[in-house]
Every structure is written in C-alpha cells, then in structure tokens.
TrEMBL record:
This is DUF2927 domain-containing protein. It comes from the Bacteria. Keywords: Signal. Pfam families: DUF2927 (PF11150). Residues 1-21 form the signal peptide. The lineage of its organism: Bacteria, Pseudomonadati, Pseudomonadota, Alphaproteobacteria, Rhodobacterales. It comes from Paracoccus seriniphilus.
Length: 336
C-alpha cells in the first residue's frame, strides 16, 4: 500500500499577497460624514448554543482521532486477509482432522511429543526472547483451566460473539482430549485471552494492569512489540519452581480474518495447556510453522491426551518421559 501525506502549500499566502500588489493604484475619495447612529448591541449566543457548539467540536475531534487511530488497523486487516488468501491458494490452512496423506505411527507420535511438550519455543537472553527450542521439563495444569475473554473497544458485539462461541466449543474439545477441566468463564479466569487491535496492543500495559497484573516487565514489553507476522501468542506461568501452570495470557489480533482467527484460537489455547513448542517434523499438526494445518488434528489431540496421562509427572525430563510416552502412544494407536 502506498502511503501519502497531505502537505500544506506554504507559499500560497505569499502568492496571494504578490497578486494583490500588482493591482493598479486607485485614488480614494473620502466619504461624506454620516450622522452618528447608536450602535445596536451584538446578539450574544445563548448557553445552549455554546454547549451545542462545544459538543459539535468535541464530536468532530473524536471522529478525527478515531479515523487516525483506526487507519493502521484497517491496513492490517487487509494485510491479514491477503495472507489468508495466499496460504489457502498454496494448499495451506487445511481443516481435515484425520488427513489420509499423513499417517501417524508410534515413532513419529513419540518423537513429536518429546519435541513439542519437552522443549520451549523460546529461551530468555537478558530482556530478550530467543527462538532456539531449549529443552524443558514437562509442564501442565493442576487446577481447572478457566478461560476468560477480554476485548478492546475495537471489538464490536458481532466479533465478541464469534470469539465466545468458538472458545466455548474449543474448550469442550480440549477437555475431552485431556480429561482435564477446561471451560469458558465470565470472571475469575486463570487463562486470559485478550482480543486487541494493533493500537490497543501497543498500549497493552493498561489492559494487563486490570486483567493480568504483575506480569514480568520484559513479557509486557514483548507483547506490546509483536511483529505484524506474529498473529497471536501465549505466555503461561508456573509458581516458583513448581512445574504446574497457574496462569496464562494469550493475545489475539482483532484484525484477523475468520480462518486465521480460528487457527490462533486452536494453537494458542492448546499450547497454553502445556504443548509449548513447534516442530518442523510434526505432521499432521498445528504445532508446525509451515501452516499446513489450521485446526487441531487427531495427531494433536493424541499429544494432549499423552500430556495429561497420570503416568507422566510434571517436572519429568525427556529421558525420563520417553519410555512412558512410547508406551502410551502404543496403547493409543493400537486402540484406534
């Protein structure tokens, strides 16, 4: 998109003055004096007129500010529509749950679980997050997961209804896959989903102060500075050295079109339950940055089922978990 800016013609006033100076001079004849008349008093505006004029000025200023603030959001909305269309035209964002061209076996399911559940997508280097897939202990939730949606002012009622419907339906699916309580709640949530426009996300500290206070300053800064190709993200937190998650916050862009929006809901909520990493070898899976699949697959449901199997314990290393994971994977695939 080509951006442009209106430029005020600074020389216009000077040109008008020069044009006036080129007119022929005319000798002015002073008029005869007229009898003095009492000046009529100027009509003063009423208080109601003053209030109405002030309200009109404020309304115009607010409209102008809204147009200026929403311009980047409209640009992003078109950008994401183009992204979705391009991915679909290249055979990406598939929605088949059990694709016939991507069979699952015990080896691949075990490998994918270890890579996705026992590695993090990022490590912290000072105040920065570095994408290097470090090893991590097994983590999951102990308390019931209570999903709570919060919306910026940019999200109209229609968008809010769409999110609530999709998150409620997906929470049921997550509970069925894990056997762990997962539900949508209107208050007192421990897994917060914030739907914000670009302008609102840049000012995310004000939203987090009321919804998810006391997050690390570095994480708040990261959330406020997302690259535009980062459509959504989730941060999950444990308490102290425990390996149980107690809180999570996910960011969804309000400008996303329908399929990218659904894809973000599926991936970030599933990752926030403990499948923290992506893997280039995972297939068929949403935990793969190639965007081949948009929605949770049967492969991904099996990963969630393994994660919450009581034979695995939070804090396990990859070496400790691998033989147990293989045994669970064998049982699951033999039964399907």
């Amino acid at each position: 998109m080509t951006l442009w800016a209106a430029v005020r013609p600074a020389g216009l006033c000077l040109l008008l003055l020069a044009a006036c100076a080129t007119q022929p001079s005319i000798t002015a004849v002073p008029p005869l004096p007229r009898p003095s008349q009492p000046e009529e008093p100027e009509e003063q505006p009423s208080q109601a007129d003053i209030r109405m004029a002030r309200a009109e000025r404020n309304r115009a200023a607010n409209d102008a500010a809204h147009r200026a603030a929403s311009a980047p959001d409209e640009e992003l909305r078109r950008y994401y529509q183009g992204m979705e269309a391009s991915l679909l035209s290249h055979g990406r964002l598939r929605r088949d749950r059990v694709p016939q061209d991507a069979p699952i076996d015990v080896d691949s399911l075990t490998r994918d679980f270890i890579q996705i559940a026992l590695h993090d997508e990022y490590s912290r280097s000072g105040e920065r997050l570095v994408a290097d897939s470090p090893s991590a202990p097994l983590r999951r939730w102990k308390d019931p997961v209570r999903l709570q949606l919060s919306f910026g002012d940019s999200a109209d009622q229609a968008l809010q209804r769409i999110y609530r419907g999709q998150v409620a339906a997906f929470s049921t699916r997550l509970q069925q896959a894990t056997g762990h309580p997962v539900s949508l709640t209107a208050s007192k949530g421990n897994f917060h989903i914030l739907v914000l426009s670009e302008a609102e996300r840049r000012d995310i500290s004000s939203y987090l102060a009321t919804t998810v206070p006391d997050l690390p300053a570095a994480d708040v800064a990261t959330l406020s500075q997302l690259d535009r190709d980062n459509l959504c993200t989730v941060f999950a937190y444990s308490r102290g050295d425990q390996q149980y998650y107690v809180r999570a916050v996910a960011i969804m862009r309000a400008e996303l079109p329908s399929l990218l929006r659904s894809s973000c809901i599926h991936e970030e909520l599933a990752q926030g339950l403990g499948l923290a990493n992506d893997s280039p070898s995972a297939r068929p899976s949403i935990f793969n940055d190639d965007e081949e699949f948009a929605l949770l697959t049967r492969h991904d449901e099996l990963l969630l089922q393994i994660l919450y199997d009581p034979r695995l314990r939070p804090g396990m290393t990859a070496a400790e978990a691998t033989p147990i994971v293989r045994s669970i994977a064998t049982e699951l695939l033999d039964g399907n």
